[in-house]
Structures are given as C-alpha cells and as structure tokens.
Design brief:
It is a single chain. With 779 residues, the protein is α+β, with helices and mostly antiparallel strands. It folds into three domains: 4-42 and 209-426 and 591-762, Up-down Bundle (Multidrug efflux transporter AcrB transmembrane fold), CATH 1.20.1640; 70-201, no CATH class; 447-554, no CATH class. It has helices spanning 4-11, 16-37, 53-62, 83-97, 137-146, 174-190, 203-237, 240-263, 275-299, 306-331, 339-370, 382-398, 400-419, 436-447, 469-483, 494-505, 519-528, 556-573, 585-619, 622-646, 657-681, 686-714, 721-767, 769-777, and strands at 71-75, 102-106, 112-117, 120-125, 162-168, 197-201, 452-459, 488-492, 544-551, 579-583. The strands form three sheets. A four-stranded antiparallel β-sheet has the order 2-5-1-6. A hairpin with a 2-residue loop joins strand 3 (112-117) and strand 4.
Length: 779
C-alpha cells in the first residue's frame, strides 16, 4: 500500500539529539510568540461574517447612530428618591461619563426632559442635581415616574428600582468590555452605593463574563485535562518514558498550533478554546495506537531500535490516513460562515498535522534513546483490552444479522428525536442559574426592560422626508403595533419626541400629546428643540430614522420569529415610498443562528464525501470505504438523538461535534480495517482475519475510548454551558463510536463476506448447472 518514498520514510529515524533540539526550539519559539502576540478576545463582532447583509447594515447604521450595546446598573433600597442617594448616583454617572470608553450615561439626573415654558418649551434635566433639596422624596419620585421615557429605562414602573444605563463608544475587544464593567463597579464603590447595587446586566457584561470563563477554562481546566491524560496514559502503558514523551508531544502540538494562530492574528475565542482539548485528545489517540504497536513488537521479542521502527511501519499508513480523515472532518467546519468556527477549522486542522509530524517523526528517536527496559505484560490496560475487544468482536460475528437488524431498528426509532434538534443560541442561558450574570439579567428585566436591542430603520426618498406629518403618522401607527407585541418591552422613536414637544409647546395639555397638525408646525418644533435625543433617532438630513426597541426574549429562534413578524407587518402596510430594514444586535444574533444550520449541513456533506473518498483510497475499495464509514455515521446519529431527547440545540459549541467526532472515531476504524485487510493478504481465513485484527488493534481502540472519554468529561467542570455541552456530547459520542466500531464493524464484515460467498455460489451454479443440481440432490 505504501510507495517507495513512504517505505524510506518509515525506515528513517532522526538522531535523537536533533529531534530533541527541534522540539526544544519549536516550543521556545512558540511560547515566545504566544506570550507576545496572542489576543484573548471573544467580542460579538468577531462572530458576524463581514459581508453578511446584517453586518453591512450595522456598519451603515453606526456611522449615523450610536451603538445599541449597554451596561445596565440596577439599584434598590428604601432611600432611592432621597437627595442623598440621588447625589451619590449622580456621582457614579459623572465619573463614568468621563471614562474614555463611554459615549453617554443615562440616569435620572442626566437625561433630558421636555417641559413647557413661557415661549414654547424647554429641554431640561429630568432631575436637576443642583436642586435636589428643593423637592421632597415623594415629589422626586412622582416626577421620575410621570416622565414619558424614564419608566422601564431608568426606573421600575412601581418605583422599586433605579438604574444607570451606560452606552459605550464603539468597542472591538472583550477586554474593553471587561474594563468598562470593572469601571462601573469601581464607580459604584467610590460613591458608597455598593450595598444598593443588585444587578449589572446587558451585552457588555455578557461579553466580559464569557471572557472570564474562557480564561478560567484555559488556565485551570486545560492543565487538569492534560494532567489526567498523562495519568491515564501511564495507566495504559505502565511506562514512565512513553508518558514523558507523550507530555512533550501534547505540549509541542498545542504551543506550535496556538503560536501559528497568534502569529496570523487569529483571536483566541471561546470557540478557539475548544482546540487545545481537541489536540490533547487526538495526541492521545495517536500515541495509544503507536504504543499498542510497540507492545506487540515487544511481545514478538524485538529490541530497540527495531521495535520502534517495526511499530511505526506497522501503523504508519493507517495513521497517515487517520490524519487526512481527521483534518477533513475538522476542516469541513470551514463551510460554516462564522469566522471563529472557520478559525477553529483552520487551527485544528493544522494542529492535527503537527501531531502527525511529532508522533511519527520526532517522538520515535526519543523512544529509541530513552525508553529502556521491558514493557510490562500485566496490570496495564493494554494487557487486558485485547481480550475484551476480541470477546466483543466474537459476539458480533456470531450474531451479525441480529446485531445489524437490532441497530437498524434503533436508528429508525430514533429518527423523531434527531428531527427535534434545531439551531438555537441563548447567550443568557450560557451560564448556570446561580451565575451573577444570569441573576443580574433576570433582575434587570423584571424591574426595567429586556436587554436585547432591535431597531427598524426607515429611509425616505428625499431630504427632509421625515419632516412630514403624514409620514410620521404612518410610523406612529406601526410603532403602536410594535408596542402590542408581547416580546417588545419598550420602543422609542422621533415620533415620541415630537409628541412630547407638541405637548409641552401647548402648555402640557394632555390633548396635545400627539403629532402636530401641519408640516409647518412640525418644522417649528424641530427648530426649537435643542436636546441630544433627536440626533440619535434621525440623521441631520431627516432622510433616515429608526425605531429602537428592547426585547424580553434572548433566544435566536424567538428573536428571529419577532423579526419575521415585523417584516410581515411592514410588507402588509406597503410603505412603497419608504425603504426599510431591520438591524441591531438582535438581528445580527438571529442571522447568525441561520448560518449555524446551513454550515452544519454543508460541513457534514463535505466531511462525509471527503472521508468516504479517503477511506476508499486507503482500502482500495469503494465497498470497503462504505463499510468502514457506516459505523462512524451511527454515533453521529446517536448523538443527535441524545440531543433531541435532552432538548439540546445546535449552537457555537455543539456545531463542532459532528466534524470532530467523524474525524476522530474514523481513526480507530482505519486501524481495525487496515489490520483486517493485511491479514487477508497474509492468507488468513476471513473469520480469523477479523478476529485477529480486533484482538490486536482493539486493545488500542478500547484504551483510547477510556482516555478520550475522561478527557472530554473534564470539560463539564466549566461554568460556560456550551463548553459543558461540548465535553458531555463529545464524550458520549466517543463512547458510542467505540461501541459501533467493535460491534457493528465486524458484523458488517461478516455479512459482506457472506454476501460475496453467496454471490460466488450463485455464479458457480449458473456456470455449472449439472454439478449444482447433483449437489442439491445430496441428502
């Protein structure tokens, strides 16, 4: 199967000192690059494709209107409307307003209030911080609650909470959001209001919480995963030197791969954080198969270096195709048009290639030099797993028909569960119920409004298009419809400001809290107005305006449903002279969810076709490739059935599992099927070829299953739910993969062999009918 060049590579070993020097230099350079260039950044902007319609609209909107991100700080207490508390809260607002990352701070002492005046109306502070002693707490409370815009934004409708809303300048990094969140807590502490602060919510604290989770998982959880991997590796091989070399392999793979990503300017995101566990798992897989071959070489009485050379030659071809299939599985995720997932595909694929180079070209010279003495024959996993694998394969071969039939029935029965799996992301459910962010979000939405922003943008055909009363009335009708939607907590538009101007201009007469009657009157009101809010709702040419809203739903599916309902309503209204679109953070998030589904389908098709072609090439048979692929599709089906049963969805983490599992589990199949083919070529009977292959390679398959399952289960210790789901489903999928490889693969091989034998008998009977008739008459 291997060509002359491959044969020479299999026999060639570097000098041990050169291999050690290469490993030392690679790790040194990699660690230096990581220390100086790695960027820990999980900013939401990184997850949006730069050429997506929603992204392009967002860029256009932010050139004219402010950001829709925010930090909401909620305060509770019995003294909220006393002059002392309001002065302290105003001190917090003033301090934050001076922060370099802050664009504007909204508090009852900083926001505009439109009021009547002798010559029309004036724009003043809702609560003047310089006149707090002129009003009683009851009067202050009534003034705030009677304002048109403060309830639901800055004060609970029942007066039980006050809030400060901080709107940042355009942010591009998670550390900026973390710094802003820290500044909020510091300002509150400096003002002496820490005991009153009950919640800090919004999209900015969300990103900061994700960054903290990512750093904790990387600095604490990952070393534990590696440590356990090495302990389990020792449990498997019972030798110190191979374990130390395994540690060097893992370290080299992860450091060089992450250094490459850092050098290319790829940020380290929550998705990228899944790469080190993947590389640790695949490094373990490659090492176990290599060490299992070394154990077989020792059993044959081989010594160094022949033992190492023989082991490498024994599994080199299969391992080479392992690398190719795993890279294909991981690289298939590049078809998901979400940049961090594409980065995962690229970084993970390169990392697997590095594993191949280290395990099969740099580790062998070290094994020859430092792995002295005998390998133990007892009390290791490898000494017992071969017998277990043989027993399982023997059972499957004897009951091949029943095994395939039974598993087929299970597959059919699980189809309804698989169909229940849909793409869904709810960022505020990514943390457990007791997490501070979850608690803060619940308090903020109970007392104020939803934290998810959405906006409908309108463009008029000409300048001053929104200085016409008839046009604003159409916007008013639509905004009234929006206010009736159960998912919409609050809306805000230039119509609200104009109505408030008209009300104040007419001496605060409730009958005039509406749009003016003429375009001239409208122009007059707009000319008098000198506040800041109007500029944030319409551009200077009055050709573009927006209706901003707060949603009380977080899930991408629910947000998408709201968007589709809004689209349908706008199309029904037939605003022919106005162009409209829907933007904001909610639109970006909902569109991202659709990309997950299309990306999952495309990546699976690519992985399926590519891996099938590689298997067919490896086994020189289309039928062999198909037989080897079926046991690896079964665990994917099983995983989606479990997800459907548990109500889990496709999200940023679980979307990675299919390509990863297909790439990893097929590796063991290649070793098993390759051993089966080689034994057939050596002249063994079909039954013995299957049995001996599973006895020899099966020991590594079971050992790999134990190791990888333990590694991925450790990820369930994360505080970030997608990481927990990724670890749990990966471990479950690996267990299922090993089960199907040891149970389904030998059954399929037996049934295929029986099919071939029956076909040959029918062909022989067709060519020799008389002989066949005579044999048929024998008793």
């Amino acid at each position: 199967m291997a060509g002359p060049l491959l044969e020479r590579l299999q026999r060639f070993l570097l000098p041990w000192w050169l291999a050690a020097l290469l490993l030392l230099v690679a790790n040194g350079v990699a660690l230096w690059v990581i220390a100086t260039r790695i960027e820990f950044n999980n900013a939401p902007e990184l997850y949006f494709p730069p050429d997506a319609p929603a992204t392009l609209l967002e860029k256009s909107l932010r050139k004219e209107f402010p950001e829709d991100e925010s930090v909401v700080a909620v305060f509770q207490g019995d003294d909220l409307f006393t002059p002392a508390f309001l002065r302290q809260q105003h001190a917090v607002a003033e301090r934050l307003a001076r922060h370099p990352l802050v664009d504007r701070v909204f508090a009852v002492t900083t926001v505009d209030h439109i009021a009547a005046s002798e010559d029309g109306f004036t724009v003043e502070r809702l609560v003047d911080p310089g006149k707090l002693d002129h009003l009683t707490p009851q009067e202050l409370r009534r003034r705030v609650l009677d304002d048109r815009f403060a309830p639901g934004l800055l004060v609970a409708k029942d007066g039980s909470a006050l809030a400060i809303v901080i709107r940042p300048k355009p942010l591009t990094e998670s550390r900026q959001r973390q710094a802003l969140e820290t500044a909020v807590h510091e300002a509150v502490k400096a003002a002496g209001l820490r005991d009153h602060l009950v919640a800090v919510a919004g999209t900015v604290p969300l990103d900061a919480a994700e960054l903290r989770s990512m750093l904790v998982d990387t600095t604490a959880l990952l070393p534990i995963v590696m440590g356990l991997s090495l302990l389990l590796l020792y449990w498997v091989v019972g030798r110190v030197a191979p374990v130390v070399i395994g540690a060097v392999t893992m370290m080299t793979t992860m450091s060089t791969t992450l250094a490459m990503a850092a050098y290319l300017g790829k940020p380290y995101t929550l998705v990228t954080a899944m790469v080190p566990p993947l590389l640790a798992a695949y490094s373990t897989t490659a090492l176990i198969h290599f060490y299992a071959a070394l154990a077989r070489a020792r059993e044959r009485g081989m010594r160094r270096p022949q033992r190492v050379l023989w082991a490498r030659r024994e599994i080199h071809v299969a391992s080479l195709f392992n690398v190719l299939t795993t890279v294909a599985g991981i690289a298939s995720l590049y078809f998901t048009s979400i940049p961090p997932i594409q980065n995962y595909a690229m970084i993970g694929g390169v990392g697997v290639g590095v594993i191949y180079l280290v395990v099969f070209h740099l580790a062998p010279p070290l094994l020859v030099r430092f792995d002295r003495g005998r390998w133990p024959t007892r009390k290791t996993v490898l000494s017992v797993t071969d017998k277990i694998a043989f027993k399982i394969a023997q059972f499957s071969m004897r009951r091949a028909g029943w095994v395939v039939a039974g598993l087929s029935i299970l597959v059919v029965a699980a189809i309804p569960l698989v169909l229940k799996v849909t793409p869904e992301s709810d960022l505020f459910k990514f943390f457990p119920a007791h997490h501070p962010l979850t608690i803060s979000t619940r308090i903020a939405e109970d007392k104020l409004s939803g934290v998810i922003g959405l906006e409908v943008v309108f463009d008029a055909p000409q300048r001053d298009g929104f200085k016409r009363v008839a046009v604003l009335k159409r916007l008013k009708d639509f905004q009234t419809w929006l206010d009736k939607q159960p998912e919409v907590d609050r809306t805000f538009s230039m119509v609200d400001l104009v109505e408030e101007m008209n009300w104040a201009f007419h001496g605060e007469d409730p009958a005039f809290r509406r749009l003016p009657d003429t375009d001239r009157a409208l122009s007059q009101l707009l000319l008098i107005y000198d506040g800041r809010d109007l500029d944030e709702l319409t551009n200077r040419e009055f050709r573009r305006t927006r209706i901003a809203m707060n949603l009380n739903v977080h899930g991408a599916v629910a947000i998408g449903a709201v968007i589709e309902r809004i689209r349908g309503e706008l199309e029904r209204r037939k605003l022919d002279d106005l162009r409209w679109d829907i933007g904001g953070w909610g639109r970006l998030f909902a569109d991202q969810n659709a990309l997950l589904l299309s990306g999952q389908v495309n990546s699976f098709l690519f992985a399926f076709l590519t891996i099938f072609l590689l298997l067919a090439l490896a086994f020189r048979s289309w039928r062999g490739g198909l037989i080897a692929l079926i046991p690896n599709l079964a665990p994917l089906f099983f995983i989606f059935a479990i997800m459907g049963l548990l109500g889990m969805h496709l999200d940023m983490a679980t979307v990675l599992i299919a390509g990863e599992l297909l790439g990893i589990t097929v590796d063991d199949t290649i070793h098993l099927y390759h051993g089966y083919q080689r034994r057939l070529e050596q002249g063994l009977d079909h039954t013995w070829a299957v049995a001996r292959s599973f006895e020899a390679s099966g020991r590594a398959v079971l050992a790999v299953s134990v190791l990888l399952t333990a590694q991925f289960l450790l990820l369930t210790g994360s505080q970030f739910q997608p990481t927990v789901d990724f670890g749990l489903m990966s471990a479950t999928g690996l267990i299922a993969g090993q089960f199907f490889e040891l149970v389904l693969l030998p059954a399929l091989l037996v049934l295929w062999y029986q099919h071939q034998q029956n076909r040959l008998r029918r062909e022989w009977a067709r060519r020799h009918p008389r002989l066949a008739a005579r044999q048929g008459k024998r008793p």
